[in-house]
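Following up on my earlier message about iron/sulfur cluster. Here are the inputs again, as you asked, copied directly from the submission form:
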Amino acid sequence: MSDTINLIIDGKQISVPPSTTILAAAREAGIEIPTICFHEATTSNALCRICVVEVEGSRVLVPSCVAHVSEGMKVQTQSDRVTRSRRTILEMLESTVDLSDAPEIQTMIAEYKADGERFPQAKSRVSTPIDDNPMYLRDYAKCILCWRCVQVCAEDAQYTYAINFSSRGYDTQISTFYEVPMPESTCVFCGQCVAVCPTGALKPKRQWLLELGHTPDEIMDLTRSERRNRRRRVEVPSNDQA
Ligand code: SF4
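Thanks, got it. Here's what our run produced:
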């Protein structure tokens, strides 16, 4: 088996090792393909489909984050069909999710001229922010179900399994098992889920309080006292008390 695969992306001849994804090959050649659910630290799942490309001979558009290169492949990353598909994905996201804290997606919306009014009947994702721990807020009205947080909480990083999907279809959302409050779950508050969230659906508590207009001193007081109270609530009883 050859240790190099030759392909053409956007008219450019490229040689990469076998098992390289189209996305990685394109990036190596300086060709940018937009991504949303893809993250270097997580396993690619091709959930958002924004990275689709047109491959000659393929009936359907191909998600470049998971599709591997093959010898003689001809790829177009910006064809009309690709552009239309990406625009529609962005329009569906804009119609249903609060993207106010997702600057990268907003940039894509402008770049692809996505019309947020295209689906006027679309049902917006409605959810009250969940403030159940001293470390971070969960506002699932901003969640695009990219799966990144679930992955870093599981095999991609932490092996904690505190969060996963719950429900089905439109009602699908990220949740703890049995929807218990985060401090009662297996969460160790490592912060990795917050770090990989692309939309502000998971936000550090102190950032949230700052945005609400609290001063740094107030924020320190608020989060310190909250941590103290929670520590008291979860104190393990001594042998005498048990
Ligand atoms: S909470 Fe954030 S990281 Fe998790 S699925 Fe939603 S958008 Fe993705």
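One observation from looking it over: The first strand starts at residue 5 and ends at 9. Hope that helps, and feel free to reply on this thread.
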